[in-house]
Every structure is written in C-alpha cells, then in structure tokens.
Amino acid sequence: MLLRWNNWIAGLTRCAVLGGLLASATSLLAAAPEAAVNPYAVIRAQAGSSEIVITTTARLAGAIDSLAWGGKEFINSVDHGRQLQTAWNADAGITPIQSETFNPTEAGSRDDGAGPHSSTKLLRLTAAGNVLESLAQPAFWLKPGEKSGGHLARNTTILSDHLLARRVVIGYKNLPHAIDYHVTITLPAAEHNKHCVMEALTGYMPPSFTHFQAYNEKTGSLEELDDGPAEQHHPVVFSTADGQHAMGAYSPGSEAPRGETGPTYGRWRFKAEKVVKWNCVYRVTDAAGLAGDYKYRVFVVVGTVADVKSTLAALLAEFQPR
What we know:
The protein is mostly beta strands. It has a single domain (5-16, 39-319), classed as Beta-galactosidase, Chain A, domain 5 (Distorted Sandwich). The protein contains three helices and 22 strands. The protein has helices at 5-9, 25-31, 305-319; strands at 41-47, 50-56, 64-69, 72-73, 84-90, 104-105, 121-128, 131-137, 139-140, 147-148, 151-152, 163-172, 175-187, 195-205, 211-216, 221-224, 230-232, 236-239, 246-254, 260-270, 275-285, 292-303. It has a nine-stranded antiparallel sheet, covered by helices on one side. The chain has a five-stranded antiparallel sheet with strand order 5-14-21-20-17, with no helix packed on it. β20 (260-270) and β21 (275-285) form a beta hairpin.
C-alpha cells in the first residue's frame, strides 16, 4: 500500500520564511543552469553527544533520504513517498480536492516505487557545512491515467509546472538540536487552483518510534496522542520507548498571501507497512486563484525526548511568547 495523501485526506477535512533567505523560486528557475545537477549531498553539525547528519541522493532527486543522530536512522525511506520531504495537493480548478489526483511530490512519483530513479527534476543543489539549498520541479504523485482513491489523476503530465525551493540549516542560534527548514512552493497561475493542502513538511519514520506525543505550549508538558489518523494544533513529537531518540516538528507560521489555515500536525501509525508518519499542514483557499510563492518554515527537532522538549520550549518562547 502506498501511504500518502490518500490515507489522511480520507480521515480529515477535505477540501515564515524570513525575508531575504529564499529568493523567488520563479527567478531561480530562470537562472538555473542547463548542466546536470549533482544530487548527492551530506550536511552535518554537532548536537549534544552526536552529530545530526542529513543525506540526499540521486534516487530521490535531492530529497532527504536519511537523517541520522545518536547511531539511529530517523527516516524510513522506502518508496518515493516515505522521506523527510514536502508535497502539496491542489484541486486543479475543480472543487473539491480528490485524494492525490493533483499532488506534486518532492521525491518523485508513485510509479517510481522503490526504484533507483525519480521523475522529479532537480534544478539546483548546494551543500556546505550545515546548510543545504535546492530547487526542484516536482513530479506529480500519479501518472496521467492512474487513479487514487478511485479518482483519476487530474494532471496530464508526470512532471508538474510547480517549483519547490528549500533551505535546510542544522542548528538554530543556541539550539543545536533544531533543524531550521524553509520551503517555498510556487504555484502557476495558469492552472487556476482554488484550494491547496500544503504538506509543508512530512517525516516518515521507522516503526521503532512507537510513542506519539504533543507539546502543549501553555503547560510546557508533553501530552499523549493516540495513533490517529488525526490532526491537532500542538507541535508533535515521536520517540522510541526508552526516550533516547525523538523527533519533533514545530512551525512558527507562513507567508501565504491570504485565505490560509494552519499549521496543524498530523500523525499515523501504519502497522502492516511498518512505518509511522507525522506532518505539518497548511490549507490555502482563494476563489480568484492560487498563484505565486507560498513560504513555510518548520523546525525539525532531533535528539532525546528531553532534548526535543527543551528545544521546543525555547522555540515557542521566541516565536509565541506568552
């Protein structure tokens, strides 16, 4: 079973990047070189007792294939949907959104499967020290003629006309366990999209991350979550039973022009497929049409449960002071 939008849209309502850090994705595309882009990159930085190490590969067109800390892999990278990545699902101007029928996906398409190639086009990638930057033209999750949830794909090509610019920095100020993750999604005006579910970031993790919790910013405590699938408004934390490895996600906001709700944080446990998933989601609506750049910022926090909790507390104190 392929585990993406189809699984969570069925159970849920259907339907900020700091200035100057990312240029317009449209401008970047115009300047993109014709030469092939090297999709292999590694960035790293110390976080407590271990380094956080992030790796990108050709198999995923530069999407994040691995995130490791403390001798443990945090990403369950199997097909081209299970990564630490960004995807979005639009209506192609035909309400409502249906399953994954217009769903650009950073790492590639459903048909790419567990294979060595991606249908996404990587336009630019640079990496140095603890900083990774890239620009990609994502593939649609479905090929033309394929179905999701019984609905035909609305795209007529496998490669979308959408763009994804990304800037990933390991470490934020005095918070070494925080990964500062910026994305800019560019929607073309010609498609006349009116509704879009922005999965600003999602993480598919190994099943050993058994414990789901939410960080309550009012009480400063971690609260138990069930398996879902469901969304809620508190930052989410997934951890191993012993608390020695954990990943949390928090978004301080976005720069969407108008008509936006979020963030909300989703969670799933796919027992048969041996994978768990969290995501950070925004929903954007504009009857006049969605077009241009939509900018999101998500902090991914990696370490022990204690590391993640204290880092989330510091981030919330900065971005949402009481």
